[in-house]
Write a structure and sequence with these properties.
With 159 residues, the protein is an all-alpha fold. The chain has one domain. 82% of the residues lie in helices and 0% in strands. It contains 8 helices and no strands.
Length: 159
């Protein structure tokens, strides 16, 4: 806390701040970073192995193997979330499990599982798109803006 803000506190508030700092649980930041790095790296390694599988056995190229790889990773995260395994992975790995595309799949299916008692249409269908809908809309809009800028630069920029 800055000294200007500390001056505005009453003596009781300052005493409380000191007491709170004494009892605050210290976070193991380095340990959490290492765990996130290992879990995220393992997810990326699995994704790379899946991509190599598609290239070798299904005659995909490097460019065309990306989409089925992403779909497979999302499907695996959906299964692991449904069986309750992905939650344990997320507890251990933190952001390392949330940042890759598997975290997106986990977030989608978690919303659906949470509201399944409300029915298939209003519960599962309505809540599965709370997160996915905004991501899809943002992705489509961003792609449109990038394509528009590229078109303008090519047409008038001579690129």
């Amino acid at each position: 806390m800055s000294s200007n803000q500390k001056k505005k506190l009453t003596p009781v508030q300052q005493e409380y701040q000191t007491l709170q700092k004494q009892h605050e649980i210290k976070r193991p930041v380095l340990k959490n970073c290492i765990r996130a790095f290992l879990v995220g790296g393992l997810i990326c390694l699995i994704g790379q192995l899946i991509q190599m599988f598609y290239i070798r056995y299904f005659d995909f190229t490097d460019q065309t193997a990306g989409n089925p790889t992403v779909g497979t990773l999302i499907f695996i995260s959906l299964l692991l979330t449904g069986f309750g395994i992905y939650d344990r992975i997320a507890q251990f790995g933190g952001a390392g499990s949330a940042v890759p595309v598997t975290g997106f799949g986990n977030a989608i299916i978690s919303a659906a599982i949470e509201h399944r008692s409300e029915g298939l249409v209003l519960g599962v269908g309505g809540n599965i798109f709370k997160l996915a809908g905004s991501v899809i809309v943002f992705g489509v809009f961003s792609a449109f803006v990038v394509a528009l800028i590229k078109t303008i630069l090519i047409k008038w920029g001579g690129l």
